[in-house]
Amino acid sequence: MSVTECGQTLLADDGVIEYKLNQTYDAGELCTFVIKIEWFSGATFTLERNGFNPAGQDAVAVFPLHTGSPQTPSYFGPNSASRLSFPQSTFFVVFRTTTNNGTGFRLSFKHENSASWAIPGPARVFNNDSSMPLELPFPSGLVVWKRPGAKITECGQTLLGDEGVIEYKLNQTYEAGELCTFIVKIYAYYGATFTLESNGFNRAGQDAVAVIPAGSASPIYFGPNSASRFSFEQSTFFIVFSTTTNNGTGFRLSFKHENRPGIALPGPALVYNNDSSAPLEFPFPSNYVISTHPVALTSGAKLLEGNSTLELTVAENFVAADDCSDYVDIISYNGGEALYLGKLCGRDEEPKVFNTQGIFMIVYVSNNAIDTNPPQASLTWKTIN
Question: What pTM was computed for the model?
């Protein structure tokens, strides 16, 4: 796997950065890449080829990321190293130039043999002034890492882990019309078993937790009138708590992986409970990696009533439109019925508009790790009363 454009990032155990290999570069370039090693601690970088001007200071600098202490860059070039090993697993790679009479480089990296894993979180490079604040954590993407027994308790939180707990208003009275959404991605296995350990749902109503595998329109319900334990083959899930009454209390739902080793494709899970202030564009800026991004959209985490609807507009410009290998899946859910609205992978088509009184569950899948401009998919949404 390789990256070739300024600002690209790569999550992989080995790969290549190849930039202007046989092209003349400009003086004053400052081209940045970010590398995250996925399954191991440590990596070896090798400068395989370069056409740098030996008379200048043109070079590639590798900055290992190590929180809590400053890091000294290691330089690769005609006047410095050609091969170095590092114990870290996340790196800023910067190509800086002082002359314009040289050509680019090919820098490879390969993991060391100490097994580990990459802490979740996308790598991003921004090469322009900000049009809006960059806020951390990402909107509603409150990711809890994969420690055993991790727990999330607030609407809109997400969890990347092999086991954990969703505990919402366990001993508190909920309101009628709630539509509270969580997203779970199993980290290192295929499949998971969910168990409703405790609940105070109103047995006379239809209040329940629905577990919906990403890309599916077949929810499995957990509650007094339905299942208390169920096993799934999938590894990414939307969990939706919908209520029709206000005379019950919440729940505790646990999950645990099955025993088939697998891997969670990179890509944050996001929940938005308000109208969009700007388009949500895929792939994320400079996050050109093979990935899957589950996204949930609601109107204030509530079921809408009367003539009110949540309107979603999707503009498509997919590069791989012929084979649909990159795409957006869209499903709506209103607390009782899930509808598969379609797979979008077209190019230069008119924007498509969808409406629901509940939640949109969207999955963007990228199998090509390509840089696209304009974006492959652009999403905007608003509540219409």
Answer: 0.66
